[in-house]
Amino acid sequence: MASLLPSTESGYLPYWFLLTTCAGTYNAIQNYFVIWQSKEVYSLKAHEMTFLAGRIFGTWTLLASLIRATAAYNVHDRVAYDLAIGTYALATFHFTSEWLIFGSVKPNRGSIGALIAGWTGLIWTLTQRGHYLS
């Protein structure tokens, strides 16, 4: 089993990539079949969360998960690493702007994980870029 996991020789960021990959993949799959969890995330405008919006969001999230999985196993590759930064930047911008600008998200049990994962991933990848890409 350990041979399937990325190396932690230079740090634990690859495991963070995998953790957020698994969470994102779960979220993407559930968005194709049910939307009650997304309605909870966007609880202040839950009526705007349709099955079509859920599938679009699921596809976007699955793409982010694919990029993060690639970065987990290629953490020293500049392109993979920078694309992973981009996934966290986009997620952070999306959820934070939905909260503070558009008013569809409020911090609750549905949204707090996405806000924390986005901000944690963005800060961690930006502050450790030199370490992993030197």
Automatic annotation (TrEMBL):
Pfam families: Erg28
Compartment(s): Endoplasmic reticulum membrane
Transmembrane segments: 12-29, 49-67, 79-102, 108-127
Keywords in alphabetical order: Endoplasmic reticulum, Lipid biosynthesis, Lipid metabolism, Membrane, Steroid biosynthesis, Steroid metabolism, Sterol biosynthesis, Sterol metabolism, Transmembrane, Transmembrane helix
Membrane topology: Multi-pass membrane protein
Membrane listed as a keyword: yes
InterPro entries, sorted: Erg28
UniProt keyword Endoplasmic reticulum present: yes
Entry's family note: Belongs to the ERG28 family.
Name listed for the protein in its UniProt record: Ergosterol biosynthesis protein
Organism the protein comes from: Kwoniella shivajii
